[in-house]
Amino acid sequence: xxxxxxxxxxxxxxxxxxxxxxxxxxxxxxxxxxxxxxxxxxxxxxxxxxxxxxxxxxxxxxxxxxxxxxxxxxxxxxxxxxxxxxxxxxxxxxxxxxxxxxxxxxxxxxxxxxxxxxxxxxxxxxxxxxxxxxxxxxxxxxxxxxxxxxxxxxxxxxxxxxxxxxxxxxxxxxxxxxxxxxxxxxxxxxxxxxxxxxxxxxxxxxxxxxxxxx
Length: 214
Hints:
Largest sheet: 6 strands, mixed
Strand content: 5-15%
Number of helices: 7
Distance between the termini: 23 Å
Structural class: alpha/beta
Number of domains: 2
CATH topology of the largest domain: Ribosomal Protein L4, Chain: A
Helix content: 25-40%
CATH class of the largest domain: Alpha Beta
CATH architecture of the largest domain: 3-Layer(aba) Sandwich
């Protein structure tokens, strides 16, 4: 697949070939959905906790006599029916972690990247380098690239000046190529990648990547 390479002022400076194995994969909705659910589940802390009636500190005295009051019979003040009592079937600390085979995770990410490329939401940049942290300069670059909504900026490696310049801009996220994931890609409208980041993605998630072997 041929894609244009944009300069920091928005002009096309080159055209490059990108791998169909990573950027032209048919969208597999089931795998992408499972990957998104897994990632969000694994981000949950699972620390919510409530007390049962047995864990409430309080008197065990019977509240009032069994008969003759006209009220329903009642025993413990710790009953779930009473204010301050225990919680019935409330949450307890647990793990929400889900497993997913590595090949499925990689396929889901390739599907997400391919969807961006097909929808025209992928823009490939030459090296994104800033001499100093400056949000105004980053905003000018994004305007030149016609980014008017949320965007994920992917560089080859973490660049302090790029990160600091983008973090004050609403809806703009930055990631090194090695750690992008399905949720990051799909939750942002535009995907901006350096040429070096594209090559790194092809190396990591191509059909015959070093991790999977020949």
